[in-house]
Automatic annotation (TrEMBL):
Any single GO CC term annotated in Swiss-Prot or TrEMBL for this entry: cytosol
Record keyword Disulfide bond present: no
Superkingdom of origin organism: Bacteria
Lineage: Bacteria, Pseudomonadati, Pseudomonadota, Gammaproteobacteria, Pseudomonadales
Gene source species: Stutzerimonas stutzeri (Pseudomonas stutzeri)
Pfam families associated with the record: Aminotran_4
Gene3D superfamilies: 3.30.470.10, D-amino Acid Aminotransferase, subunit A, domain 2
Molecular function terms, GO-annotated: 4-amino-4-deoxychorismate lyase activity; pyridoxal phosphate binding
Keyword Iron-sulfur attached: no
Cofactor(s) listed: pyridoxal 5'-phosphate
UniProt xrefs under CDD domains: ADCL_like (cd01559)
Name of the protein: Aminodeoxychorismate lyase
Coiled coil: none
Length: 271
């Protein structure tokens, strides 16, 4: 199932700058019972990214279109792609531009239930994230670093990979954000240089604060990660996975991880 600018389609125009240059953004949205989950956070991030890239969008109209698409899809994943639209050869953005809206529907991924119940092991990726503050946090279309990182392992014993920046700071998973628990506080990487500001990451930080938990965004070294009391991953499709191992380090599934996992499960429930 796919729509282009509100109409059923089978593809994108060949001159689109999203294809030529990755000139655009995307959101991957869980759809349950015909409704987009965490919709406000997805649209807020998308709007911020479009402002950063100077791609004009009509947010209210986009919300209506996405709502209709999810009602038709019913259950699954809605991938929303916004590109700057078609352009002639060359990097200079067309003025004015005519953005394209592409919506793709697919089934929900079937993750093994033990990932959430027992926890997952992290693969230590050699691929590093380049530091570019102008794009930090934005979910833009260029995901080649993640493609290279995901190609590093084929062992199903690893459900995710750990990605660091060029200075060795811990940033995120290949398709997840990462949190650690140390001294009773929740810590997550600062995303001022690189990384994706996940919507589930934002939701967990907000919910944790409401529960009276201290949340810190900061630079995290690899050594600090290994010293953490608990570690977990999150994204908007699977929710929260405890991390139980990285290299020789083994972690228990701790009480704070389980508490937040319960909160996230309620967010992603069918009700």
């Amino acid at each position: 199932m796919s729509w282009l600018n509100g109409q059923r389609c089978d593809g994108l125009p060949v001159h689109d700058r999203g294809l030529a240059y990755g000139d655009g953004l995307f959101e991957t949205i869980r759809v349950v019972g015909g409704r987009a989950q965490l919709l406000d956070r997805h649209l807020q991030r998308l709007s911020g990214g479009c402002q950063r890239l100077a791609i004009p969008i009509e947010l209210d109209a986009l919300r209506d279109e996405l709502t209709q698409f999810c009602q038709v899809l019913g259950q699954g994943v809605a991938k929303l792609i916004i590109t700057r639209g078609a352009g002639l050869r060359g990097y200079a953005p067309p003025q004015p531009c005519q953005p394209q809206r592409l919506l793709l529907g697919s089934p929900l991924p079937s993750y093994p239930p033990q990932h959430a119940e027992v926890g997952v092991r992290l693969f230590p990726c050699a691929t590093r994230l380049a530091e570019q503050p102008l794009l930090a946090g934005v979910k833009h279309l260029n995901r080649l670093e993640q493609v290279l990182a995901r190609a590093e392992w084929h062992d199903p014993g690893f459900a995710e990979g750990l990605m660091c920046d060029m200075s060795g700071r811990v940033i995120e998973g290949v398709f997840s954000n990462l949190f650690l628990v140390a001294d009773g506080r929740l810590h997550t990487a600062s995303l001022t240089r690189c990384g994706v500001a996940g919507v589930m990451r934002a939701e967990i930080m907000a919910r944790a604060s409401q529960l009276g938990l201290s949340v810190v965004e900061r630079d995290i070294s690899y050594a600090e990660l290994l010293r953490a009391d608990e570690v977990f991953l999150c994204n908007s499709l699977y929710g929260l996975w405890p991390v139980t191992g990285l290299a020789e380090r083994v972690w228990p599934v701790g009480p704070l991880t389980r508490k937040l996992q319960s909160v996230v499960a309620d967010l992603l429930s069918d009700s």
